[in-house]
Design goal:
Blueprint: H1 3-31, E1 40-51, E2 64-65, H2 85-92, E3 94-100, E4 106-107, E5 126-127, E6 134-136, H3 143-151, E7 155-159, H4 165-177, E8 182-186, E9 194-200, E10 208-214, E11 223-235
Parallel strand pairs: 2-6, 4-5, 6-8, 7-8
Antiparallel strand pairs: 1-11, 3-10, 7-9, 9-10
Amino acid sequence: MSHRREQKEALRRERERREAEARAANQRKRLVGIVGAVVLGLAAIAVVVVLAAGGGGDDGGAGVRGSGNVFPSGGSIPKQKQFDLKKAAAAAGCELTSNKATSRSHITDINQKVPYKQNPPNSGRHYYVPAQDGLYNGTPPKDVELVHVQEHGRVVIWAKPTLPREDRQKIRALFDEDSYQMVVVQRANMPYAVAATAWGADPTPLGTGYTMSCWTFDDVLSTLRRRLAYMEENPTP
């Protein structure tokens, strides 16, 4: 098992332990008449690694949604060599940014327009039902659904549908290699070739939005790889 998979398994076990302790605590609170159990949410402070071209990957189909062919199979990705996020992003010419989240509130109309300041969005008001995990080979979920899924610890990778087929195949190969807590969608109306976003829990109560934006997808940016989704469990409003 790779070092990254071992880290994720350890984090998952720790999350399950904390969830069990939280459920027990909530039961005790109900027994003594305390109203309003604390609701635990997952939030991810995600980091993504960009690698040079080469190497190989495997093909898969689990979690692929839609009948389109935006992200076709048949691509390959290299072995992970650089584990330092800042160095990898700098080498690829990508920009790492963060912003304070402004709201965790829900909307009930999926067609309501929320004026997100970031493009693609990484936090803020959102539809009360989150998007499902997976790679969307056709029409993606709405922004308000994708923001909600980030609140629950997912990393969203956004890619221009006009990228060359070979590059979109590499993004598919990335997803096929390890789709855990990952969402991949096309986004035509963003200024970047590829971007990755996540919504971290700290500082409470609203958290922080994180973005890695890449303007080009050249030899250095031939493969986008998520290094680690470091999940933190904090009480949410």
